[in-house]
Amino acid sequence: MKSWLDNKNASGGDELDVNTIYSINLAYKLIKRFPKLEKRHRVVAGGLAVSSALIILASIAISKRIKKGENIKTALNSISEPEIEEMKLKKKNKKT
Length: 96
Hints:
Mean pLDDT: 80
Radius of gyration: 15 Å
Strand content: under 5%
Number of strands: 2
Number of helices: 5
């Protein structure tokens, strides 16, 4: 399977470190398990890319499972589609 990193015509930008690349690839693997979710979050003309928000939510879901002690394989296999869709970032309480 070709990686999104294989695109030699990419616009450039900052170079990603190994951990970031690994995290993004894990998020893509998780998203690929849910074709309907992926299709709903396709963006750009013709649906060429997945929404970055979905990638972030998938990454957070994986991270939460790993922090609870699950290994990566178990985390990827046990996360559900609703768990990704319902993921919300907690607002920090503002100190007054």
